[in-house]
Specification:
single chain; 16% strand; 11 strands; 40% helix; 10 helices; three-stranded parallel beta sheet; binds nicotinamide-adenine-dinucleotide; alpha/beta
């Protein structure tokens, strides 16, 4: 293996320690940052994500207020919960764990969260600010990817970044961020309509896979020396106690022979997402008590 491993656990820990120090300062002023996490239904992956968030909040000295609602909860009931959290001054951030049960409209719920408490940066107001480069939250996973590139001094200026996936939470915002003058990458976005995916991926100095398909990116699709960022988290069935193992979209063993840098799954982008969530939640509280806007 020749690639340098981009260890999100190490970089994420540094960022969480920074969040912890800032939280201590805020607590000395009598304010404990609080993130409310709403989970509807019993999706096993969502349960484990919420647990990881609760643990990170506790370690940073922040309050995590988890609301676990049954899968039969109606959209109106969920909107009622969000309304009361919006009005609660002791809650600084609100996160609705996705996906929601099919009978609840995701867009309606996301846009019901007070934008000042929208630490996921999914609300249309915050997405607009991101696009217009106005100060505000940045979405956790794309921002986590940017921080990993920064930490490892991976050049973005003039680099060709190929982002696979156009979701509102990963692909689109990440493409927007990389194209900012600050990072100055030339961005290609690939998706289900892309013809000959490998033609594009082989040109990538920075290759970002945010698809959700195990094994999609094989070693022969990677340019020598590229930075390969695997956002995908897929549960693949295996024999054993849990019955599954986590894997990304990239065939790690193959890509690591060719790439210059590569993220593992698990332990790459995932811990960075959590660290950025801690920082956004903290920022929401700091802003409330007179701090600057932005993360
Ligand atoms: P999504 O399902 O909303 O979007 C997937 C995208 O992939 C779509 O835009 C689609 O056009 C594209 N796509 C699908 N098949 C393709 C193909 N064969 N070729 C090219 N493009 C293709 O997904 P999402 O919410 O952005 O999540 C993507 C993956 O990232 C999932 O595995 C998810 O679990 C993971 N994820 C990880 C984190 C993290 O913190 N590590 C955070 C969010 C999402």
């Amino acid at each position: 293996m020749s690639a340098i491993i981009l260890d999100g656990k190490v970089t994420g820990k540094k960022l969480r320690e920074n969040a912890k120090e800032r939280t201590t300062l805020l607590r000395k002023q009598g304010h404990t940052p609080c993130l409310a996490v709403i989970l509807v239904g019993d999706n096993p992956a969502s349960h484990s994500y919420v647990k990881a968030k609760e643990k990170a909040l506790a370690e940073a000295g922040m309050e995590g207020r988890s609301l676990r609602l049954g899968g039969e909860t109606s959209e109106a009931e969920l909107l009622g919960v969000i309304k009361s959290l919006n009005a609660d001054d002791s809650v600084h951030g609100i996160l609705v764990q996705l996906p929601l049960p099919r009978h609840i409209r995701e867009a309606v719920v996301i846009n019901a969260v007070d934008p000042r408490k929208d630490v996921d940066c999914f609300h249309r107001v915050n997405v607009g600010k991101l696009l217009l480069e106005e100060p505000g939250f940045l979405p956790c996973t794309p921002h986590g990817v940017i921080q990993l590139l920064r930490e490892h001094k991976i050049p973005t200026k003039g680099a060709h970044a190929v982002v696979i996936g156009r979701s509102n939470i990963v692909g689109k915002p990440l493409a927007m961020l990389l194209a900012r003058k600050e990072f100055n990458a030339t961005v290609t976005m690939c998706h289900t309509g892309t013809k000959n995916l490998a033609f594009h991926t082989r040109q990538a100095d920075i290759l970002i896979a945010a698809v959700g398909q195990p094994g999609l990116i094989t070693g022969d699709m990677v340019k020598r020396g590229a930075a390969v960022i695997d956002v995908g988290v897929n549960r693949v069935s295996v024999a054993g106690e849990t019955g599954y193992r986590l894997t990304g979209d990239v065939v790690f063993e193959e890509a690591a022979q060719i790439a210059g840098w590569i993220t593992p799954v698990p332990g790459g982008v995932g811990p960075m997402t959590i660290a950025m969530l801690m920082l956004n939640s903290l920022s929401a509280a700091e802003i409330r008590y007179g701090g600057k806007c932005g993360t």
